[in-house]
Amino acid sequence: MKRVLKYVYKNLLPGRISQSIDIFKYLRMVKVDDLKEKNVLVLSPHPDDDIIGCGGTLRIYRQAGTEVTVVYMTDGRKGSFGTYDEEDLVLLRKDEAKRAAGIIGIDRLIFLDGKDSELSSTVDALKKMSDILNDLKPDAVFLPFLLDNHPDHMATNDIFVEASKIYSSDIMCYGYEVWTPLTIPNCIVDITETISIKMTALGEHKSQMVKINLVDGAVGLSRYRGAIHLLRDSNAEAFVRCTASEYRRLWEVIH
After folding, report:
1. What is the mean pLDDT of the segment spanning 107-128?
2. Distance CA 255, CA 242 (A)
3. Are 204 and 96 in contact (CB under 8 A)?
């Protein structure tokens, strides 16, 4: 992250104004438990990424009365480790996502049914994302951070960034971690009171625990975040938090 910001300031800003204009001010604002949005959209590349990356935080939002919508970008057909037939797994993972979302209390689920591992920024995908943004008008969007190392997670970012360019409001973005732990998160949410709900919800994704204990992995990361960032025996979720315009700048530099 520091290298990206250094590149931006050195190469994209004229020298005479680089010292007086901070185009990444939100990236430098470290916040803890500063959740004020009332309409939240979550982009989940697969039917479990939402719970892994921000399940505890979503529960906190719901307890505060915030409306939460989750969009599942793909059908998750490749997540069986060879245990299930792909078409059977699509149906199973949709049911698992519904049960997990019910435990968190998520208001609305949207299944776009893109093929797992084949997601890309097509005209159709961009239209669907634009329609969702214009229909829901979210205050905040949660999505895997743009450096999360999975092709569908990267494609989710491509689709959102392109669609957000023609959306009138500057949404607050929260980049969450799944495959790649965040190097320098700037937003830490204490989920100690909701970690048990997150664990229960994640436990509904039984098809994904044939060879990997997702619950232990997610809890281990949240305990690390609590110890390092909250300096106590607690659980936390970490995010890169910034406006959509700042997020687009990061995306453009990386690309």
Report:
1. 97
2. 18
3. yes
